[in-house]
Amino acid sequence: MARDDLQVCLNCHNTGVPDARGRCPRCHTPLDFRRRHSLQKSWAALVASIVLLVPANLMPISIVYLNGSRREDTIFSGIVSLGSGNIPIAAVVFIASILVPFIKVLVMLTLLLSIYFRCEQGLKTRIRLLRVVNWVGRWSMLDLFVISLTMSLVNRDQLMAFTMGPAALFFGAAVILTIMSVEWLDSRLLWDAHATGNAHYTD
Q: What sign does the dihedral 89-93-95-99 (CA atoms) show?
């Protein structure tokens, strides 16, 4: 028989009855039936990440000084340059720097809109999508890691110098915000939307 007082702890994933202080009996994390302002915080982080992705892709992410000349590369032009010499590395950077961030944004937009409009169909698919974007989030900083590694390998003399461009800051902030958007979204809101139909959700 179902019990209405059972709650899931999002910290240790224990399902049980809160203690006298409303905490998880296992890890003592305060329990709520739903995270407060989860939808608003997730929307705010996602919109901010979309705004930051614009300068991240338009401004130079790497600056190379070679024999006194300066060369700037955006994310896309850097991928094209890599592709002329090393296609596998260019493919990895393209997936991590362009494909993954934009797919995460599209998936999160789909999930948040499905909660807002209380979509009843495709619950299993949306839960799987949320798990996927949560898993791939850890690989989103791969592009900045490649640039940092290149800097450590290239900056060995005065003939050639390599440094990050201003887009790296915007890109890193956008990636962190998309990760926060995923983390702040309470997945139980997807179940609420599925259960109650096409009425607007108010947190």
A: negative
